[in-house]
Write a structure and sequence with these properties.
This protein is α+β, with helices and mostly antiparallel strands. The chain has 2 domains: 6-198, Glutaredoxin; 203-352, Jelly Rolls, CATH 2.60.120.260. The protein is 17% helix and 27% strand. It has helices spanning 16-31, 74-89, 111-120, 134-138, 166-179; strands at residues 47-49, 63-69, 95-101, 127-129, 146-150, 156-161, 211-212, 231-234, 245-253, 258-260, 266-271, 275-282, 289-295, 313-316, 320-326, 334-340, 345-352. The strands form 2 sheets. Strands 7, 8, 9, 10, 11, 12, 13, 14, 15, 16 and 17 form an 11-stranded antiparallel sheet that branches. The radius of gyration is 21 Å and the shape is elongated. The chain starts with 15 loop residues before the first helix and ends with a strand.
Length: 353
C-alpha cells in the first residue's frame, strides 16, 4: 500500500506506466486483428441521449472517438473541455464523438441525473447510456476516463487512458480524418477555456488521493468504530493525520455512501492539494441541503470553490461532484470541515486536484 492508499489509484486515477503497458498490449492485439476490431458493443447500450441509437454499420466511413465517462468523476471533468472542443472543431470533417456513460455510483444510473449533467456541462454529442457496463466490458475497458480512436473502417487504432496527452490525441484524430479523405489543416491544437472543476489539476503539489466514504472502499477513517447500515453518533478526534477523515454527529455509514440523520453533522478531512471536491446530494427529491465549509477552522475566503461563497456557504440538491475549495496558494497540509445545516445528505467520495 502506498502513501495515498490503494483506492487513490483506482479506476478513476491514471497510472502512466500501467496505461502505457496496456496501450502497447492493445496496439499489438489490434494490429493482429484478434480483438476489438469494430464498434459492436455500442449496440448493447441501455439507451441513447442526444441521438438516436448508433450502430457500427451506420458509423462506417466516419472517424469515431469513443469516450468512457461517469458524470461525478473529476478526472473526466478535467478531460471534458478537450473532447467538447474536438467534437465541435472536427464535426464537419467526419468526426463523431460518442460518450459512453458507465456509472460508478448508483445515482449515476438515473437518466434524469444524466440529462441534468448533459445540460450543466454543455454536452451535445451522442451519449450511449451503459448502466449495466455491457459496452464497458465489450471494449475491455478499465478506466474513467478512457478514449478509443476508431478509424473509418471501424477499427480501433489508438487509445488513451486517463487525463493528459491532449495534443497527441488531437494528432491521432487528424491523422485518421486525413486517412478517411478529409482535408485537415494541421494547425495548433485546440485551446480550451477550463474554469472551475474543469481546470487541470496542480499535479506538482498534490499529496491527497481519492477516498470513498462508504464502508466498502473507505480508508483512513479516524472516528472510533463503524456501525454498518444503521444510525450512530460519531465524534471526531482532536487531530487528524494527513489523508485521514472523521465524522461528527449522527450518521449512517452505508456500503456506498454516508447519510446524515440529524442537522449539524460534520465531515472533517486532513488534506494536501489545491482543490477539494466532495461528491454528495440531497436524499429527497426535490430537496436541498445547506452546508458551510471551513479551512483550519475559518471560512475559506479566497480559497472557496465554485460551489460555495467566500464565507463557505453552499447548498446541494441533485447528487453531483461539488468543488468546495480552490486555494490560491501556497499549498500545505490543511484541515477541511463541512457542516450540514440540514439533515438528509448522502456523501460518497472526496477527490482532489
Amino acid at each position: 500500500m502506498n502513501g495515498f492508499g490503494e483506492s487513490s489509484f483506482s479506476r478513476r486515477h491514471f497510472l502512466r506506466a500501467a496505461a502505457m503497458t496496456m496501450a502497447a498490449a492493445q496496439f499489438n492485439s489490434i494490429a493482429s486483428g484478434k480483438s476489438r476490431s469494430d464498434l459492436w458493443p455500442l449496440e448493447r447500450a441501455t439507451t441513447w441521449l442526444n441521438s438516436q441509437p448508433l450502430t457500427g454499420a451506420e458509423l462506417q466511413g466516419k472517424v469515431v472517438l469513443v469516450e468512457f465517462w461517469t458524470y461525478s468523476c473529476i478526472n473526466w471533468r478535467r478531460q471534458l473541455p478537450y473532447v467538447r472542443a474536438w467534437a465541435e472543431k472536427y464535426k464537419d470533417q467526419g468526426l463523431v464523438v460518442i460518450g459512453v456513460h458507465s456509472p460508478e455510483f448508483s445515482f449515476e444510473k438515473s437518466t434524469d441525473n444524466i440529462r441534468w449533467a448533459l445540460r450543466d456541462m454543455r454536452i451535445s454529442y451522442p451519449i450511449a447510456v451503459d448502466n449495466d457496463h455491457v459496452v464497458w466490458r465489450g471494449f475491455n475497458n478499465e478506466y474513467w476516463p478512457a478514449l478509443y480512436f476508431v478509424d473509418a473502417k471501424g477499427k480501433i487504432r489508438h487509445s488513451q487512458f486517463g487525463e493528459g496527452e491532449y495534443a497527441q490525441s488531437e494528432k491521432v484524430i487528424q491523422s485518421l480524418l486525413i486517412e478517411a479523405g478529409a482535408t485537415i489543416n494541421r494547425t495548433q491544437p485546440v485551446s480550451v477555456d477550463a474554469p472551475g472543476a474543469e481546470a487541470a489539476a496542480d499535479w506538482s503539489d498534490l499529496r491527497s488521493g481519492e477516498n470513498y466514504l462508504g464502508y466498502e472502499r473507505t480508508e483512513n477513517f479516524s472516528s472510533s468504530g463503524v456501525a454498518r447500515d444503521q444510525p450512530r453518533d460519531y465524534s471526531a478526534p482532536m487531530t487528524l493525520a494527513l489523508n485521514s477523515w472523521a465524522l461528527s454527529g449522527n450518521w449512517s455509514v452505508g456500503r456506498e455512501a454516508i447519510r446524515l440523520n440529524q442537522p449539524g453533522g460534520r465531515i472533517l478531512y486532513r488534506f494536501h492539494a489545491r482543490d477539494l471536491h466532495l461528491v454528495m446530494g440531497a436524499t429527497s427529491t426535490p430537496g436541498s441541503v445547506r452546508f458551510r465549509v471551513y479551512v483550519d477552522g475559518r471560512p475559506p475566503g479566497q480559497a472557496h470553490g465554485v460551489d460555495v461563497d467566500d464565507q463557505g456557504n453552499g447548498a446541494v440538491t441533485e447528487p453531483r461532484m461539488c468543488q468546495l475549495l480552490r486555494q490560491p496558494g501556497p499549498i500545505s497540509d490543511r484541515q477541511f470541515e463541512i457542516q450540514f445545516l440540514d439533515s438528509g445528505v448522502d456523501a460518497f467520495s472526496f477527490t482532489f486536484g
